[in-house]
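Handout, page 2. Input:
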Amino acid sequence: MQMRGGLVAMAALLTCVASVARAGTPELYGFGPRAIALAGAIEAAADGPRATWNNPAALGRLASAGGSLGLLQLAPSHRIVQIGGQQRYPAATPGPVTLGNLAVAAPIGGPFRERLGVGLALHIPLSSPTQIWSRDPRQPQVPLYEGLVDRLLVGLGVGWRVTDWLCVGVTGQLLAELSGGGDFRVSSLERRFTDQRLAVDLWSRLTFTAGATADLGTRWRLAVVFRQHADVRYQLPLTVRVAELGDVAMDVRGVGLWSPMSLALAARFAVTPRWSVLASARWERWSELPPLGPDVRIDVDNAALARNPEQAEQILSVQTSPVPLAAADRVVPRLGVEHRIARWLRLRGGLGWRTTPLPRATGSANYLDADALDLGLGAGFALADPERVDVDRIGVDIAFGWSHLFRRTASKRDPTDPVGGTSLEGDELRFSIALRHAL
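Output:
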């Protein structure tokens, strides 16, 4: 009876966990300080090594090899208030995050000189390794921000300058899928494992980002960037054979780190040789967001107690019921300005508006989100290199960003809900710095 009670408790625990949705920092704010300072309006202004992520078409315009090494610090402050309820499920909010990024790129010489370029971009979580973890869906949480620390991005891109005015490019992003399984045999009387096997497999696959830019005269540049939806899937079946009882079969599978398919249209207009205005609108397909909870199934039989295997009966069967989210597609507009004050100094600023794709949390699940305003401010400094050959070869970019989530309140349809209504608002501060060098 004690063993069966423990199995029931374990089943109940596994069926109430829910995998957190993921939205990566590059998807939200762009890659590197310049993108953050422009509030993400970077598609038509991408250049240098960081174009591998922002718009790979710009790799076709590389004049020389170069690299960039940067750091990003996020300081979120999400405030969740529970209205009514029994306060049995305390709110969970994201903590500070430290991320690193590295990008290198080079043009291809020979017959492809000034026509073909390649780049590599890495986005590295420094606060913790890549991970997929879970929360009870009844616990108030902000899933679209929880995953910012948990995602390692590796992108390899190539850009081709088709004509003097048209460039195209593509970046492949490497992701991993986790699968495996295990079989264990235990004896509750002897209190030991009699046999055990565990296998874990990591499968790599690619998702793609494609981009194009078109220069219309000397003032206008138009850009389009398509991103394939990206996710990390996991499947972990496990069987435990208890000699005095029977088989305990568990299967856990789901989608972890997830970002939507998107299509961005952008433009850059050079008002004067020193002033540029940038704008972009990105459509994001959040309606394809899968349930945040994993699919968990547990079956227990009494094969060891039955006289023959054909008489074995299932004594426990538990399976999760995924919570449909009914997320909505959205369009994210962004606007940026860049001003070259001197050869060694550029100032940047930008703003963006993000409507929430998630509906109000009026049911039993408490996945919270709110409309957000993004503001960015930054500068680019060109420093003389040791040989003083070219003042633009070494530079430093810095950026400050601020996002404000406007208050959003949700009342429960069920007045006896143990959590009660919720109210979310918050802020997030960002600081990014990067050193760049052109050969």
